[in-house]
Amino acid sequence: MTSLAIAPGLCAAEEGEFSKTWHAFSSGVSQTWNEPERYDLYVPAITWHARFAYDKEKTDRYNEHPWGGGFGQSRWDEKGNWHGIYLMAFKDSYNKWEPIGGYGWEKTWRPLADEHFHLGLGYTVGATARDNWKYIPVPVILPLASAGYGPVIFQMTYIPGTYNNGNVYFAWMRFQF
Question: pTM value?
Answer without folding.
Answer: 0.88
